[in-house]
Write a structure and sequence with these properties.
With 79 residues, this protein is α+β, with helices and mostly antiparallel strands. Helices cover 30% and strands 35% of the residues. It is built from two helices and three strands. The protein has helices at residues 4-18, 33-41; strands spanning 23-29, 45-54, 57-67. The protein has a three-stranded antiparallel sheet. A hairpin with a 2-residue loop joins strand 2 (45-54) and strand 3 (57-67). The longest helix has 15 residues, at 4-18. It is globular and about 40 Å long. The mean pLDDT is 88.
Length: 79
């Protein structure tokens, strides 16, 4: 709650743009609404799910995506 997440995300986005990336993808645990909301406020949109095993449990992550450059829409590209 002290603004560290915003500062870190700013650095990640700037670094990605400086390397020439035009978009960014991330996974976030589906049961972490605070993180999902944070990424949504930073321009990420939901692009689907990814499942994986953690010990004996199957977990589901939300896959989120965003353009890094200015674009007319923030629609998820097909994979």
């Amino acid at each position: 709650g002290g603004g560290v997440a915003h500062a870190l995300m700013d650095e990640v986005l700037v670094t990605a743009m400086e390397t020439g990336a035009d978009s960014m993808w991330l996974d976030v645990w589906e049961h972490n609404p605070r993180a999902i909301a944070f990424y949504g406020k930073r321009g990420f949109v939901d692009a689907g799910t990814s499942t994986f095993e953690l010990g004996d449990e199957k977990q589901t992550d939300r896959i989120m995506w965003r353009f890094l450059q200015l674009a007319p829409t923030n629609q998820v590209p097909s994979r």
